[in-house]
């Protein structure tokens, strides 16, 4: 056979769309931000105290929004009960139903234990609503042992969440772009870049620019790691000797769309690296670029991965159209993040009391 | 009356379970294995009329734009310049090692004793993980139900002694459906006659499909390197209107 034209092909609709991208983006950022909260909240490193508290806010905002995106993708949220009633433990996704609550409960407990002394101090100073702060502080004891224990639970949950999100996509042999051992690493590394970016963005929103050099130092390291993993992943996917690699290469060969996408992915990473390295005091630009990079990786992996045909020649192109479902996934998750941000920043103190007093005076 | 009338009776009752079990075991072993349904597609007899596609859609009330079976059609040109038509009727392969089953987080998809892979609609959560895992693009999310949908070999018809709708409607008799456990069935005889000449889709996936093909070109048994007319055409929803 010399040439072939598929005159009648049947392209399937992409079954994991924006909701999935949003979920993987937000849960990755949340877990990364949780780890960024440890140096200041658990190890009490002075230079990390402000950044770590802001990272905890990021972990809460993104961590509480992410499962909503996941539930929305089930078409009927009540169906999540079946994950517990009929768990198939041979499936990574089934484990996710246990790892997400473990992480979130650990995170909430850790956040509450860490913020209790601050809330007690606010109640003592008579900040309104003092009664609310007094109740929530529950004595306000700064129990480092309990904080460490909660942090261990949350850290275990975070590691398991990162593991399952990577593994559930990696095990899908039918998707050559996913079926590579580097995928879980790539998702985890870019999640850290995104977590640092979101923490930087929250710091900028709060007007705390002093943390920029510290965040940019870590952002640089994270972007180097992203670049290295991204390069290795691309090389493995495109030049590996496996049948999956050959298939991917065949599908992407000569596609200007794919070339542009991969170029955009690398350009974003390199630009974020350059900015965080050369503009140590800049907060917003490196943060936004890091977030864009983390989001693009998920977009390319999930939507691009599904666009490669499993059979036949018809590619399953995805175009971001402003349908009700797409709008809901973008506006819904962004709106929920914003609502949580407003609620948490209105009710809970996120700045160091000494720093806050300094700001007031 | 004997002084020990119960001894023999007790002995009889004591040996009764062993005797019953002994009788039952060979009876169970002798039980026939039951049917194992499969399909053989003779592509040489397929004229790409899509009667099977429509017949299936009517029988199973498939949602608009989604199909449980289709006939992918190719215009091929040989190295000597000869042009021709090639077809690949596609459906769920009811694999012996179905990758869609282990990934299902709630165990909603399973393989029946008769070899048919089905989805328990009550349990399915519509996560589409099975859709991702299927190497044959044979599954989709039904927008009416929000759950996974796929070919069931028309199990409701088979249980009533009928043939699947696609087999019934095939004008060229290209689809042969039957029990591969029965050596006298049409499919077993045809498979035996075509031994060494049959193919399955994507054999490298290791799924052991139970849909076999006669006359299928190797180049068309997986992802096809070639142009797609669909990629060049206007598609509803993608470019407005």
How many discrete structural domains of chain A?
Answer: 2
Q: Note the gap between the termini of chain B.
A: 100 Å
User: What's the β-strand tally of chain B?
Assistant: 11
Helix content of chain A: over 70%
Q: What's the rounded overall pLDDT mean of chain B?
A: 87
How many individual helices of chain A?
Answer: 13
Strand order of the largest sheet of chain B: 8-1-10-9
Number of DSSP strands of chain A?
1
Q: What sequence of helices (H) and strands (E) makes up the elements of chain A? A: EHHHHHHHHHHHHH
Estimate the mean pLDDT confidence of chain A: 88
The biggest sheet of chain A amounts to: none
Count of distinct structural domains of chain B: 1
Structural class of chain A: mainly alpha
CATH fold-level label of chain B = Alpha-Beta Plaits
Largest sheet of chain B: 4 strands, mixed
Shape of chain A: globular
Q: Which consecutive residue ranges of chain A, at least 5 long each, have pLDDT under 50?
A: 356-361
Multimeric state:
heterodimer
CATH architecture classification of chain B: 2-Layer Sandwich
What do these coordinates show?
The complex is a heterodimer of chains A (361) and B (241). Chain A contains 13 helices and one strand. Chain A is an all-alpha fold and 361 residues long. In chain A, 49% of the residues are buried. By secondary structure, chain B is an alpha+beta fold. Chain B has a single domain (37-217), classed as 2-Layer Sandwich (Alpha-Beta Plaits), CATH 3.30.70.20. At the A-B interface, strand 1, helix 3, helix 4 and helix 9 of A face strand 2, strand 3, helix 4, strand 11 and helix 8 of B.
């Amino acid at each position: 056979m010399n040439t072939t034209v598929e005159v009648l092909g049947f392209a399937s609709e992409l079954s994991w769309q924006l909701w999935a991208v949003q979920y993987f983006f937000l849960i990755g950022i949340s877990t990364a931000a949780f780890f960024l909260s440890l140096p200041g909240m658990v190890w009490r490193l002075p230079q990390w105290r402000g950044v770590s508290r802001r990272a905890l806010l990021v972990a809460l905002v993104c961590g509480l929004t992410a499962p909503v995106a996941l539930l929305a993708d089930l078409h009927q949220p009540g169906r999540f009960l079946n994950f517990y009633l009929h768990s198939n433990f041979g499936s990574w996704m089934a484990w996710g139903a246990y790892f997400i609550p473990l992480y979130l409960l650990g995170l909430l407990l850790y956040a509450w234990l860490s913020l209790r002394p601050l809330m007690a101090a606010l109640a003592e100073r008579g900040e309104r609503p003092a009664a609310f702060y007094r109740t929530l502080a529950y004595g306000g004891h700064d129990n480092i042992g309990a904080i460490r224990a909660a942090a261990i639970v949350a850290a275990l949950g975070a590691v398991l969440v990162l593991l399952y999100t990577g593994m559930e996509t990696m095990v899908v042999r039918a998707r050559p772009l996913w079926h590579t051992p580097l995928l879980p690493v790539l998702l985890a590394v870019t999640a850290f870049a995104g977590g640092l970016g979101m923490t930087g963005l929250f710091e900028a929103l709060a007007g705390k620019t002093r943390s920029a050099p510290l965040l940019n130092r870590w952002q640089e390291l994270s972007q180097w790691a992203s670049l290295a993993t991204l390069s290795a992943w691309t090389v493995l996917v495109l030049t590996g000797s496996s049948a999956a690699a050959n298939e991917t290469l065949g599908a992407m060969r000569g596609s200007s769309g794919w070339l542009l996408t991969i170029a955009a992915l690398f350009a974003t990473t390199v630009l974020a690296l350059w900015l965080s390295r050369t503009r140590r005091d800049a907060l917003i630009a490196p943060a936004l670029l890091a977030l864009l990079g983390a989001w693009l990786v998920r977009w390319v992996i999930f939507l691009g991965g599904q666009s490669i045909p499993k059979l036949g020649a018809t590619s399953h192109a995805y175009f971001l159209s402003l349908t009700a479902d797409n709008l809901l996934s973008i506006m819904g998750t962004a709106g929920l993040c914003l609502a949580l941000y407003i609620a948490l920043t209105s009710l809970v103190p996120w700045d160091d009391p000494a720093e806050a007093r300094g700001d007031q005076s | 009356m004997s002084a020990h009338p119960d001894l023999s009776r007790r002995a009889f009752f004591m040996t009764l379970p062993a005797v019953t079990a002994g009788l039952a075991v060979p009876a169970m072993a002798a039980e026939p294995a039951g049917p194992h349904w499969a399909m053989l597609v003779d592509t040489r007899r397929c004229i790409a009329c899509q009667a099977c596609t429509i017949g299936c859609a009517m029988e199973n009330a498939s949602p608009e734009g989604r199909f449980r079976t289709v006939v992918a059609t190719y215009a091929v040109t040989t190295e000597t310049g000869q042009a021709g038509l090639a077809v690949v009727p596609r459906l769920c392969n009811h694999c012996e090692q179905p990758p869609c089953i282990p990934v299902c987080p709630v165990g909603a998809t399973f393989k029946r004793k008769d070899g048919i892979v089905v989805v328990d609609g009550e349990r399915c959560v519509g996560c589409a993980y099975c859709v991702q895992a299927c190497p044959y693009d044979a599954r989709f999310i039904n927008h009416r139900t929000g759950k996974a949908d796929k070919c069931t070999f028309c199990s409701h018809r088979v249980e009533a002694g009928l043939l699947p709708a696609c087999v019934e409607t095939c004008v060229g008799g290209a689809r042969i459906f039957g029990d591969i456990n029965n050596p006298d069935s049409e499919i077993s005889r045809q498979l035996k006659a075509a031994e060494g000449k049959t193919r399955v889709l994507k054999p490298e996936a290791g799924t052991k499909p139970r849909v076999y093909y006669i006359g299928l070109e190797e180049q068309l048994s997986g992802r096809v390197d070639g142009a797609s007319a669909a990629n060049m055409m206007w598609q509803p929803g993608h470019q407005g209107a």
